[in-house]
Amino acid sequence: MSRKDTLIEEAAENITIPVNVGVVLDADTEIGKMGMKCISMALSDLYASHGSSYRTRLVPNTRDSKNTVVGAAAAALDLLKNVEVQAILGPMTSMQANFVINLGDVAQVPIISFSATSPSLSYTRSEFFFRATLNDLSQVQAISIFIHAFGWKAAVPIYVHNEFGEGIIPFLNDALEKINTNLPYRSVIHPLASDDEILKELYKLMTMQTRIFILHMPFSLGLRLFMKAKEIGMMSKGYVWITTDGMTNFLRLENSAIARSMQGVIGIKPHVRVTKRLQAFSYRWRYNSQEEASIQDLNIYGLWAYDATIALAMAVEKIGPRHFSFQKINVSNGSMDLDSLPVSTVGKDLQHALVDTSFTGISGDFHFKNRQLDTSIFEIINVVGKEKKVIGIWTTENGIPRNLTSMSGDPILPSSAASLDILWPGDSKSIPKGWVIPTNEKKLRIGVPVKDGMSSKFVRVINDLKSNTSKVSGFSIDIFDAVMATLPYYVPYDYVPFENADGKSAGSYDDMIYQVYLGNFDAVVGDITIIANRSNYVDFTLPYTESGVTMIVPVKDKKQKTAWVFLKPLTWDLWLTSVCFFIFFAFVIWILERKSNEEFGQTAPQQLGTSLWFSFSTMVFSQREKVVTGLARFVVIIWCFVVLILTQSYTASLTSMLTVSQLEPTLTSIDKPCCNTF
User: Where is the chain membrane-spanning (predicted)?
Assistant: First the structure.
């Protein structure tokens, strides 16, 4: 081969083939400016490192979609018909992509979006649509697991009224149903909603029971909503706010107003492993962006734009140098003619090359699974001060590990959710219950008594004149607080002292209780005695002290001072039984002693009379006769014991009747009328 032929061959090898690609972005938005800059940096980095080996060069043709669906469609039509681009990077939003995808199908041109996340843009819908970002569906499981860990049974999604907002809701509903959490209400915010319209919807949410809110909307709209929520008190204790990655990815807390409005917010975002390559790229990004004040910090969408551009350039190079052209069929000269579009001759080859493209990008492992990115790792962040504190990392294998430094930690379960160090809205560390009794912004007014000139261990009211506030404490207050804390929901309440303007008691306990009947108090707490007239106006709780329920009523004296009072201790039946036993004992003694004991007499009448005398005289142990038989002595011993018990019992009963007051209440029931008793 001659030297001339060699030079010609080398020159041919150094010739690069330009390949037109379209870029459809919203030029005046932050993500649009970021995407354009990252695309430019990606092409510069790729061809600088592979200049000698790459025969193709992507030539970006940028069009402004002007933040509208029509603008994106017009830009795509212009690029396909007039520039004959082989692929389109963009568009930005799911609404824009919904129409542009159809154009790509007709022209057989790959549409690669790094920011359209709606699940409705399914990979089964178009073989030429590539989602170089995450499907919103991928974060639904992370949100449901987080809610399940705290046992919340209801949540309200707040989403923007467009394809981006509505696409996630059916999948979110299905995921929450699996953990027995329902969506009692769906709050829809228009993309162009005014502040008054946002306030109206927030006030409606305040009247509902649920306090768990899942926010799925663009950052600009979400920030306005948080500002208004802070303004009306919905960023206070008891509320839970969870933001999806569409807002969390753009979260910046350098602005004090933003940080104050979002304290305690929980956010979900994709996890990006920090590498030296990423750190170097971030440094170059900040250096190159110093002169462009409108471009803010780099986020995940910029990384995906960079990697998507690299993937497209690699796929174009993979199909090799060839004639990149369009087959024109009945195409008119009108730039907006929708009847027919030119068809790319290499579209299918480029589509297959993109499917097979896989590499490690600055965002991590980059490859298309079902023509969309796939990730199994999400960060759960907590807004604390001006920091985005990572409180958990969700993975499909391990849930939310306790040990955030290890992906193999035990998952967080409902029983161990308290192990997550979370600052909730209202600077609270206690886990919100998730719902309250709807009070239409009104807290329960709990009346407490004020005692003049004395301190009570049950209720103490201390007035702070400097701050014009009252501090309430005491045993009754502690009991009430403990009971309210055990409720499965949060009930807001305030203690209101029953006092005049001078700080003294405004009346008696009866007057304070009557205020509940009038509606000035919702309840009263204190050392309040349960009495009949108060029960006509309020319901009392069960007593929590040992005194119980008592009645103070007049009584009557049952004691009768008569001459026959000594007969009262024993009944007539007992008197008769005692006499019979005396006679029976006399008869037994006569039978046993009549033959051998001369002291009982010689004749039968004498013996019977002496036996009766012996029987009755034992009652005072004054018998003179002696018994001589052993069996008679045994009977006397038993009889003396019986007589002793009988006499002592009689003496005690008579003494009690004569000395102890016998009182009987004249009123035995709280419902029984008491007339002429006072």
Answer: 574-592, 634-652
